[in-house]
Write a structure and sequence with these properties.
This protein is an alpha/beta fold. It has nine helices and four strands. It has a four-stranded parallel β-sheet, with helices on one face. Strand 2, helix 7 and strand 3 form a beta-alpha-beta unit. It is globular and about 55 Å long. 21% of the residues are buried.
């Protein structure tokens, strides 16, 4: 078994993913393995689903966990983040109140009004650790740095993902990483 989520942003759809998987059906039936697959499909949802399926099959055939096949330590429970969707500060506050018992909240942000949203969530869930997904909402390195500095004052902020648009100059990302008070 393997699964994936096609992302329209990357030109993927359910139909395109199925088409990609079908395009390698004969190769798989003739014995292609997981490593060969990495060369046959472009990075994306279809390759991810097939890679997961190959790992699943290999684990079942060997009657071992994937972690054992990779010579990794036994899996342990871990805390996952509960996501609060992007909304008005008032609505995000209400959502934070509903989920204040969760130890880790992930906040979807988008640029303007983000600090107010974070403050509203903090009032609703004062003990939770926070992760921010800026959804590429901070358009310049200076805007991103200012937001990161304000977020770092919270003290419970774990890290920030996708601070800037994906077409950002890599040098700007290095500049931001070198100055950011948060990972």
């Amino acid at each position: 078994r393997g699964e994936c989520v096609p992302y329209a942003r990357y030109g993927e759809s359910c139909d395109s993913v199925i088409e990609q998987i079908e395009s390698i059906r004969q190769d798989v039936q003739q014995g292609s393995d997981r490593l060969q697959l990495q060369q046959q499909l472009p990075a994306g949802a279809a390759r991810n689903a097939m890679d997961c399926a190959f790992w699943d099959l290999q684990a079942k055939l060997s009657r071992r966990g994937v972690w054992e096949m990779l010579d990794m330590p036994a899996m342990q429970p871990l805390t996952t983040a509960y996501t609060l969707s992007l909304d008005s500060p008032e609505n995000m506050h209400k959502a934070a109140l509903e989920h204040a018992d969760r130890p880790l909240l992930k906040l979807k942000l988008a640029g303007e009004g983000d600090i107010e949203r974070v403050r509203a969530v903090r009032r609703g869930a004062p003990e939770a650790r926070l992760i921010v997904d800026a959804n590429e909402g901070w358009k310049t390195k200076e805007e991103a740095l200012k937001a990161l500095e304000l977020l770092a004052r919270d003290g419970h902020m774990q890290f920030v993902e996708q601070p800037m648009p994906r077409n950002t100059n890599p040098e700007d990302l290095v500049w931001l990483k070198d100055r950011s008070p948060l990972p």
